[in-house]
């Protein structure tokens, strides 16, 4: 007994699977069953007695037996040549109705063949061939059959052929419907897989941007402080010692942020997964302090009141300031000064970084990785980024980030 209360469900399923795996054997079995039914029917005389059809009142002729055998044999090839088989079985049926003195029920094979044509071809072909078959067999039965033209048996030929065409068309429609559902499910599965791959690619790009920002910022500070220490090591060892202390602090901060960023790739159950909050404007003062210690004077102006921002916007604003000040330290010269402003304007927050130093090197066409990373962050949030030289000297980087709409929705998810 199975769980669904149908003890024959499993055997029937196995039988269907085997029959589908061997269609020729199934068609041969079907042809044998049809042959038995036709031979049995040929022994029944529908007008044998007033009480109704009786079995054994007549016997089929040798000619009728040959036609029944040929009609059943043709059904073995019904899947490979459905229209040819229909023409052959219909021809045998017509020959039996016209040339046999006691017509055998060869029409049964034509009915099966018509069902096969309807289930394996299109609807226009089904109705054209079905109408032709119904007309020819019904006309032959009415004109050449042993019964009057209005007899019930003649109308039965019309009814059986019509039902075969309708049933075959219904099977074909259902099969097409199931195939469409299966194709839609497979297409939806492919879409889900493509969406998952796209999200993985976006996440990798985001982590790559974070790694670049972290490494570029701290390595630039380490490089500057190491240069200062090497320059004053002999004449001012105290200043060199202070510079080396800044190198140690910057390198430790780089390792901590690198560990936190790479830790995002760990599994949720990993005990070493980071628990500290992601960098944001809440620790902006600490970021500016590292630049001041590296010899870059930075002034800060904030009018946002320290209001909480969506996590994606908060991180993007912090990284933009970090990358812009790193570029100032690398390209604007030792005498440059920088100004940072964070302004909340309606549903946006404006982050601006200015410097007054000359450019020591020509920028790479299209921007380096730093500017490209900033632009990708801003574009992903639906904002705008402006990065260009200032009139009269210096450089200006301004990002306008929306704090509602797409950014908020991403944060909520």
Automatic annotation (TrEMBL):
CDD domains: HATPase_UhpB-NarQ-NarX-like (cd16917). Its EC number is 2.7.13.3. The chain crosses the membrane at residues 24-44, 59-77, 129-151. It catalyses: ATP + protein L-histidine = ADP + protein N-phospho-L-histidine. Pfam families: DUF7134, HATPase_c, HisKA_3. SMART domains: HATPase_c. InterPro entries: DUF7134, HATPase_C_sf, HATPase_dom, Sensor_HK_TwoCompSys, Sig_transdc_His_kin_sub3_dim/P. Residues 178-205 form a coiled coil. Residues 312-405 form the Histidine kinase/HSP90-like ATPase domain. GO terms for molecular function: kinase activity. Keywords: ATP-binding, Coiled coil, Kinase, Membrane, Nucleotide-binding, Phosphoprotein, Transferase, Transmembrane, Transmembrane helix, Two-component regulatory system. It comes from the Bacteria. This is histidine kinase. It comes from Streptomyces roseicoloratus. The lineage of its organism: Bacteria, Bacillati, Actinomycetota, Actinomycetes, Kitasatosporales.
